[in-house]
Design a protein that fits this description.
Blueprint: E1 4-7, E2 13-16, H1 18-26, E3 31-33, H2 40-44, E4 57-60, H3 64-76, E5 81-84, E6 100-103, E7 110-113, E8 118-121, H4 127-135, E9 139-140, H5 151-157, H6 164-167, E10 174-180, E11 186-189, H7 195-201, E12 210-217, E13 219-220, E14 224-233, H8 237-247, E15 255-263, E16 278-286, H9 290-301, E17 308-309, E18 312-315, H10 316-319, E19 332-340, H11 345-355, E20 364-369, E21 391-399, H12 405-419, H13 440-444, H14 448-458
Parallel strand pairs: 4-6, 5-6
Antiparallel strand pairs: 1-2, 3-4, 7-8, 8-12, 9-13, 10-11, 10-12, 14-16, 14-17, 14-18, 15-16, 15-20, 19-21, 20-21
């Protein structure tokens, strides 16, 4: 092994001796990967195919002690540091060029306690793995809608999906967490220990440390939920969305209905002549009694003249994977997102006009349905402040050919700007691409000042900066 030139926190180069790297590796149960290792390329590859970064070192951690050692090594050498959970972040923050990556993917332990209805989950677990383990006991945790997502990044940013309206955000079900802070100390964050840190990690992202274990509250769920898709012709889009909005006005917390607008993929239940044509999809889930679900969904299923209605009881863990084919890893992705207090006629017009100008067959608009239990938590109770929104728009610019980069990015940006007058002005940090650093303060609103103070206390040198970054107070306004 030779001495290595590694990227430092000043975006310069630090020479680290071979002896220092070997000594560091010798303190680990896991392994250290370099560019010459066969497993390196797989370890640096993340969900978004636009991200192609080459870390100097990748530390695949086997446990909390490895994380402690890796954070200390990075801090001692002032190395640029990224932390990888599931590698699903749209901005690619799981990897960095030339620096050190703490790779948590080997840490996948999940331990469910049926008596207390809680679970301890390590940060390398995916949503699918959490669902499989918890559903074995007919318990569930509210998470996201793409099961290949990592539990760590999803939780730290907030976390919402099919059962959020009933049980709250993922962070609303976080009871405690073990966190390695920037000084290499392992602490417990909870309502009684490091309370400020516990507040900050519930929505504040990876700004404050590396979580090595999450303790979650679970809920009785399933094993089946009433769920499925109702697919409408795009020609009826404005009417469908207006009726959708009306049907949800008095929706019970158990009911969630998202909208997807895109060109129809070749789904087996759609007539072949609809494949590749623009459609409006109502994706719905009721997480309570099946008979009650039928009644709750009746208004939504009565809308218009659908092409297909495939709503029926499904295993919850299976329904959690329903959108995985649309969000598979490897494609090039660029997202833009808005929160909405209401889905106004003007907003609907903007959205439908954008679908008429789709730049590719995988580009799409998702409209997430939130509120319910998540909206009954005070904005200041957690770092995540967007509690009053009812809908979250996520524009998925998604394509394969690099030559399409600009046209697909421009489409997403144009839609974002056109929808801005009708939006709430807030944002979900997990949906923000790497060029939206300027939106971080707005995303946290009145909570941002407190986050800055906690950042200064726990990470004054901004070691944890590969994220939607909350800078320490002395760095505010810095480039």
């Amino acid at each position: 092994m030779n001495d290595m030139s590694l990227t430092n926190l000043q975006n310069g180069i630090t020479m680290v001796s071979a002896a220092a790297i070997e000594a560091f590796a010798g303190r680990l149960r896991g392994r250290v990967l370099m560019a010459t290792d066969a497993a390196y390329d797989e370890a640096r590859t993340v969900w978004n195919g636009m991200i192609d970064r080459r870390p100097g070192l990748i530390v695949q951690c086997a446990g909390a002690a490895d994380v402690v050692n890796a954070v200390r090594f990075a801090a001692e050498n002032q190395l640029l540091l990224a932390v990888r959970g599931g590698g699903h972040n749209i901005a690619g923050n799981a990897v960095c060029d030339g620096g050190l990556v703490i790779d948590l993917t080997p840490m996948k332990s999940i331990r469910v306690d049926q008596t207390t209805k809680t679970a301890w989950v390590e940060p390398g677990a995916t949503l699918a793995e959490v669902d499989m383990e918890t559903q074995a006991f007919r318990l569930g945790l509210p998470t996201g809608i793409n099961s290949t997502t990592g539990i760590a990044g999803l939780t730290l940013g907030g976390g919402f999906g099919w059962i959020t309206r009933k049980f709250g955000l993922t962070i609303d079900n976080l009871l405690s967490a073990d966190v390695v802070t920037a000084n290499g100390e392992l602490v417990r964050a909870s309502p009684t220990e490091h309370r400020d840190l516990f507040w900050a990690i519930r929505g504040g992202g990876g700004n404050f440390g590396v979580v090595t274990a999450f303790e979650f509250r679970l809920h009785e769920l399933g094993p089946e939920v009433l769920s499925g898709l109702v697919v409408h012709p795009f020609a009826d889009a404005e009417s469908v969305l207006q009726q959708y909005r009306q049907a949800l006005e008095n929706a019970p917390d158990e009911l969630t209905c998202w909208v997807v607008m895109r060109q129809a993929p070749p789904l087996p239940f759609l007539p072949a002549d609809w494949h590749g044509k623009e459609v409006v999809v109502l994706a719905m889930c009721h997480c309570g009694d099946l008979e009650a679900g039928e009644k709750a969904m009746a208004g939504l299923r009565a809308i218009g003249n659908p092409i297909a209605d495939v709503v029926s009881p499904h295993p919850f863990a299976g329904w959690q994977q329903a959108f995985d084919p649309l969000l598979a890893p490897g494609a090039r992705n660029y997202w833009k997102s808005h929160d909405f207090m209401e889905l106004s006629d003007q907003a609907i017009g903007v959205l439908t006009e954008a679908i008429r100008k789709l730049p590719g067959p995988e580009c799409e608009i998702f409209i997430g349905h939130v509120g319910g239990a998540a909206g009954r938590v005070a904005a200041e109770e957690t770092a995540f402040p967007q509690r009053s929104s009812h809908f979250v728009m996520n524009v998925h610019g998604r394509w394969r050919d690099p030559d399409q980069d600009q046209v697909c990015i421009d489409w997403a940006r144009h839609l974002f700007e056109a929808a801005k007058p009708y939006a709430a002005g807030t944002a979900y940090v997990n949906f923000m691409p790497e060029d939206e650093i300027d939106r971080v303060e707005a995303a946290y609103g009145a909570n941002y000042g407190r986050l800055v103070e906690i950042k200064r206390r726990y990470d004054p040198l901004n070691l944890f900066r590969m994220n939607q970054n909350v800078r320490p107070i002395q760095e505010r306004g810095a480039a």
